[in-house]
Amino acid sequence: MNTQKLSIFSIVKNEHEMCSGAWESVKGADELVIVDTGSTDDTVEIAKTYTDNVYYFEWQDDFSLAKNYAMSKCTGDWVMGLDADWRLEEGGIEKIREAIDKYGEEHDVINVTLVFSGSPGHAHIMPNIFKNDGSIKYSGAVHESVNKPGFSNGEVKINYCYGPSHKLDPDRNIRILKKEMENQPNNPRWIFYLAREYYYRNDFSTAFSLFAKYIGMSKFKAEKGDAYLIAAKCLFHLNRGDEAREHCLRAIEINPDHEEALRFMADIHYEPWKRKWLQFAEIAENRGVLFVVNRA
After folding, report:
1. Under CATH, to which class is 170-293 assigned?
2. Are 33 and 8 in contact (CB under 8 A)?
3. Strand, helix or coil at 272?
4. Do the beta carbons of residue 173 and residue 205 sit within 8 Å?
5. Which long-range CB contacts under 8 A does 47-56 form with residues at least 24 apart?
6. How far, in Å, CA of 83 to CA of 190, rounded?
7. Are strands 31-36 and 6-12 parallel, antiparallel or unpaired?
8. Whether the predicted pLDDT of 3 surpasses 80
9. Distance, CA of 245 to CA of 251 (rounded, Å)
């Protein structure tokens, strides 16, 4: 039987509409630590109904700083991060304990599967359950990651959406990413995520220019495949169909198992090629794909 203490930590700001759902989903944990970064609504009052471990941390446009501070307040043997618009699956606490029992002897970091509940749905595996021994730290001001790789196929599932608080500071991610690019101009990671932000805003010209720069720098195959695919979508929106097909083909060359790339290739072809690409997509298993579209 697992006797190790499990702590959950949350970083929040103005999450009145979302936070209760998140914290209800982890009620079986041994400890909940909540760090507020400057709410002006009643988020802090709601937090205090769930735990006495409520702290304040001055927001500095840096998620890693805030999350590392939150982890420093956790007393559990293991910790897991939970955003306000995340919901741990039913029975998830038990599954976390099972994962710790199964992998915790040999691994300090365990993966979870993050499932987007919006449209189009997608899922990706990410490290999010950590041994709380002081060796695990976040880095990166946004799209932050920890300093050790995760293990497992992501048996624990967390569902998420984008809560209303994102609309209060819509330029936050672009602002932070531009600052990171200034600080680390040779790090392609920030270019990739900045390009995605512009793609989500339908600024396809700016997004494509950034993806092109990223592709010339990156050696991370899974992320590079995703960049080729989104660049292809940008080009198609810009009425540059031949270039879109070329870029999508490069994504497939990197990973022929990439279902979304195969389906997009079908979308931008006429028959009989459309049907052929769809046949390939039907048997794709998405092995090694960074972000998997959920078609369930």
Report:
1. mainly alpha
2. yes
3. coil
4. no
5. 47/12, 47/19, 47/23, 50/23, 51/23
6. 21
7. parallel
8. no
9. 10
Residue 235 tokens read as 């080009």
Query: Which tokens hold the place of 131?
Result: 């041994």
Q: For position 1, what pLDDT does the model report?
A: 52
Rounded to 10 degrees, what is the CA torsion of 285, 286, 292, 296? 0
Instruction: Render pLDDT for 249-280 as a digit per residue (tens, 0 to 9).
Output: 999 999 999 999 999 999 999 999 999 999 99
Amino acid at 191: I
CATH number for region 6-165: 3.90.550.10
Integer Cα distance of 197 and 177 in angstroms: 9
| Residue 55: partners with Cβ closer than 8 Å, 6 or more residues away | 33, 34, 35, 36, 69, 70, 73
Q: How do strand 145-146 and strand 157-160 relate by DSSP bridges?
A: unpaired
Q: Are 138 and 63 in contact (CB under 8 A)?
A: yes
The first and second tokens of residue 170, run together, are 């819509």
